Amino acid sequence: MPEPVLFDIDARGVATITLNRPNRLNAINMAMRDLLWTYLEACRDTPDVRLILFRGEGAAFSAGADISEFGTAPSVIDSRRARHDRDVWGELLAHRCITIARMHGYCYGAGLELPLCCDVRIAAEGSRFALPEVTLGYIPSAGGTQTLPRIVPSGVAADLIISGEPIGTVEAERWGLVQQVVPAEQLDAAVDAEIERLLALPGDEATARRRAMVQT
What we know:
- The protein is of the alpha/beta class.
- It has a single domain, classed as 2-enoyl-CoA Hydratase, Chain A, domain 1 (Alpha-Beta Complex).
- It is built from 9 helices and 8 strands.
- The termini are far apart.
- Mean pLDDT is 89; it is low at 75-79.
C-alpha cells in the first residue's frame, strides 16, 4: 500500500506534505494524523526548512476525517490521550515555518480545518468548502470553531458551522476564506509564485513575522 502521506524537502527549503489517499478523497485517518505529526516535527527540527506546502493527491484536497474509523478505538481515554499528545492542529498553528495550503476539489471538515491553520490558502476554481460535521451530530473537532471566525466574518462562520452547507470559491474569496482563486490549470503556478515571493523576503523576515504572531 502506498504511504497515505508523502513528504519531501527541496533545495529551497520548501517541505511538501501530500495527502495521498486519492481513492478515499484523502479522508484523514489516524495513520495520516500520526504521519502529519511526524512530518511537522521534522520540519520544526530541520533548520533549512522555511516553508511547508500542503497539497492533496487526486480529485480533492481532502473530504474530511475518515468516518469509517469513528468508534473503532479500543478505549475512549486512549484515543483522547493520543489526540492530546499528538495535537496536529496545535502544532501547525504554533509552527515556526510559513504554511501554505494548495486547495482543490472537496475541502470539507478536517480538509478545511487543516488549511484554516495555514498562513496562505490558494484554491482552484470550482473547489468546495464546508464544515459538515453537524450533519453527523458533532462539532468540527480540528479547531474549526475557533479558527474559522478568526478568518471570515463571525456571521459567515456561524452559518457555515451551524448549517454545514458548502460554499464555492466566489464566496470563499469574497469572505477571505482563501486569499487567491485561480483556474485549476494555473494552480501550481500560482502556488509556486507565492512560495517564491515569500522566500524572496529578506533573511527570515516571513518566519520572524510568523513567530511574532504565534507568541502574541
